[in-house]
Design brief:
CATH class of the largest domain: Alpha Beta
Distance between the termini: 28 Å
CATH superfamily of the largest domain: Alanine racemase
Largest sheet: 9 strands, mixed
Number of helices: 10
Helix content: 25-40%
CATH architecture of the largest domain: Alpha-Beta Barrel
Structural class: alpha/beta
Number of strands: 17
Shape: globular
């Protein structure tokens, strides 16, 4: 604990009221229940799960997930992968394209480090040029130390996200065949993540989107097989849709990550009866610093929580405490009574915000403070460093 920022080590065992504000807090009881639900689901349905570490950016939480049954973690950045490996996480998938030669040299070196620990590094690709550059970097690393390390490569297909990925079908086949030309690369399967589907509000819209994604995957796999190539693993899915991918019989690995914490944006989705019920477990603790006749001001502005998916929700313990949060700028939040209420919180009142989007909120903080026993009367049990904070390259 001596490496923690000043004052934090002394919080261990202290009541939640002693946590200074604003602070990022994990309800450990809720988080562990979420983790247990996902682990049970994966085991029951005999499907792999590889949660996204870009959610928590914490080596300790990644190891907790692996201990619970995850095969490893996903990351989006080379720097995130480096942090995970340096911390002892040796099964990592960079589920994103890497093109810059300097970054690819880091990827090749990382693949060797992982292999030395009996692990495996994987990466996504969506262009022949990207594959060739990756192969060159791997070959240079192999020549440098004589170790024949192999990296797993997934062909990313665009199943509706409209971001990275080749078109499903023949373009993906061409890319799979290109990967197989290079001894340092191993074609591992398809990356088929539909990010937009995670936040489609209606159940039917999400089901329709994933059904189209599954059709695209099936078609692409069939074409790959006609070339005499084993189609490999299909990996993808997120917290808003993973039960649908799991039920398809096509996906072999789930990448859902937000289920650990949940956020205000996911709370807006119409709940699918087939979907697991997860709890909010990540909060920004804040304090009222100014009061007025119709509103109060807290000390948590958008430097403490991301607003790309909207304003945070104010966690209400009962109907009388319902408040709405409005943007007050960098360091302030405006709090007004919810409809039907007139009560303004008093000066010094401690409040809990549910961030609109967990991932970028975590990246704003150095640590996450874990409490057990609830937000009202719990105690501080763990402090997690955000190890990969700022790991953008």
């Amino acid at each position: 604990m001596s490496t923690l920022p000043p004052g934090l080590a002394e919080l261990m065992g202290k009541p939640v009221n002693d946590i200074d504000t604003p602070a990022l807090v994990i309800d450990l009881d809720a988080m562990k229940r979420n983790l247990a639900r996902m682990a049970e689901f994966a085991k029951k349905h005999n499907i792999r799960w590889r949660p996204h570490a870009k959610l928590h950016k914490s080596v300790a939480l990644a190891k907790m997930q692996i201990k619970a049954g995850a095969v490893g973690v996903c990351v989006q950045k080379t720097a995130e992968a480096e942090v995970m490996v340096a911390g002892g996480v040796y099964n990592v998938y960079i589920s994103n394209e890497v093109i810059a030669p300097a970054k690819l040299a880091r990827v090749a070196l990382l693949a060797q480090k992982v292999a030395a620990h009996g692990g495996q590094l994987a990466i996504a690709a969506d262009s022949p040029e990207g594959v060739i550059r990756l192969a060159q970097a791997m070959n240079e690393a192999r020549a440098g130390n004589g170790v024949g390390t192999v990296i797993d490569v997934f062909v990313e297909i665009d199943v509706g996200q409209g971001r990275c990925g080749v078109e499903p079908g023949s373009a993906a086949v061409t890319l799979a065949l290109e990967i197989r030309k290079h001894p340092a690369l191993r074609f591992a399967g398809l990356q088929a993540y539909h990010g937009k589907a995670q936040h489609l509000r209606s159940v039917q819209d999400r089901r329709d989107a994933i059904a189209k994604a599954v059709d695209a995957v099936v078609h692409t796999r069939q074409l790959i097989e006609t070339q005499g190539v084993v189609p490999g693993l299909v990996t993808g899915a997120g917290t808003g849709s993973f039960v649908l991918e799991a039920a398809s019989g096509v996906y072999g690995e789930l990448q859902a990550g937000s289920f650990m914490f949940m956020d205000a944006d996911y709370a807006l989705n119409e709940r699918d009866p087939a979907q697991l019920q997860f709890e909010h477990a990540l909060f920004v603790k804040t304090q009222v610093i100014s009061t007025h006749s119709g509103h109060a001001v807290c000390d948590a502005g958008h430097k403490s929580h991301a607003i790309d998916s909207g304003m945070p929700l104010v966690h209400a313990f009962d109907a009388e405490s319902e408040l709405e949060y409005f943007n007050g700028g960098d360091e302030h939040g405006i709090l007004r009574p919810a409809a039907g209420s007139k009560r303004v919180p008093g000066l010094g009142r401690m409040l809990w915000l549910i961030p609109g989007h967990c991932d970028p909120t975590v990246n704003l903080h150095d640590v996450m403070i874990g409490v057990t026993g609830g937000l009202r009367s719990g105690t501080v049990q763990r402090i997690y460093r955000v190890d990969a904070r700022g790991a953008m390259t």
